[in-house]
Amino acid sequence: MSKLSEKQKTIIIISLYSIVTIVLWQFEIGRLIFYPFTVLGTWFHEMGHGLMSLFLGGSFHSLEIYSNGSGLAKTSGDLFLGSIGQGLVSLAGPIGPTIAGATFIACSKQEKSSKIALVVLSILLIGSSLYWVRTWFGTPVILFFGLLATFGAIKGSAKFQKNLILFLGVQACLSVYISIDYLMTKQFSRDGELMMSDTGNMELYMLLPHWFWGVLIVFISVFAIWRSLKYTLK
Q1: Is residue 9 part of a domain?
Q2: What's the number of domains the chain is made of?
Q3: Closest Cα to residue 228, out of 88, 94, 105, 125?
Q4: 55, 116, 142, 226: which is deepest, by most CB within 10 A?
């Protein structure tokens, strides 16, 4: 019996990660098991808002992550492109996890790029926990993730690093599946206060209805995941 090729192994690993995650997310115990990655997905989301604001000439003041898995990025400033820039900051949050996940999946193709991805991730996690994260819950949790990524980058074997960055990539990409309801919602309630969703803000700043932006975000996410898988499996 012939051995499996690297491509076949990667397909099996990605399939297992995806199926197990989606199945377990249907149950309370599964959501509890994957709770740490929910928090990490929130970090990707809020960092997307903050970094896009900086990229467009604005400010990124703080990042709040709460124990229920929700978060908030506080930004301000006159952005390049005006209201469109504000819309892009809103867009960057929902697609942040997908971009990170697709990048991680692509990086898992090679041992060197897997290690580099872990190093960059650890720097961003530790740096943000010290500079931007401002909640009693979020700061130690994100710092802990950063230290784990650092340990994996320094002490982990090449195979471990590839599998770890691939697993993190799959988890980040699947967050779009978990957040579809949010993407199709214009407003939501937080602690009894009615707040605008990201797609609701995009409707406000870029005119088209929130559901259009929700569908567009899902399309962009699926396309990015498909491209990363195509590259990795080539």
Answers
A1: no
A2: 1
A3: 105
A4: 142
Residue span of the structural domain in which 206 resides = 16-233
CB–CB of 43/72 below 8 Å?
no
What's the full length of the chain, in residues? 234
Within a domain: 126: yes
Place of tokens 């399939």: 15
Distances (CA, A) of 110 to 2, 11, 25, 192: 23, 15, 30, 47
Does residue 171 lie in a domain region? yes
Which tens digit of pLDDT belongs to each residue from 145-174? 999 999 999 998 998 999 899 889 988 888
pLDDT digits (tens, 9 = 90+) for 21-56: 878 777 888 788 888 888 999 999 999 999 999 999
**Strand-pair category, 59-65 with 187-190:** unpaired
Q: Whole-model pTM?
A: 0.89
- β-pairing, 59-65 vs 193-196, is unpaired
DSSP-assigned letters across all residues of the chain: -PPPPHHHHHHHHHHHHHHHHHHHTTSHHHHHHTHHHHHHHHHHHHHHHHHHHHHTT-EEEEEEE-TTS-EEEEEES--TTTHHHHHHHHHHHHHHHHHHHHHHHHHTTSHHHHHHHHHHHHHHHHHHHHHTB-STTHHHHHHHHHHHHHHHHHHS-HHHHHHHHHHHHHHHHHHHHHTHHHHT-SEEEETTEEEE-HHHHHHHHH-S-HHHHHHHHHHHHHHHHHHHHHHHH-
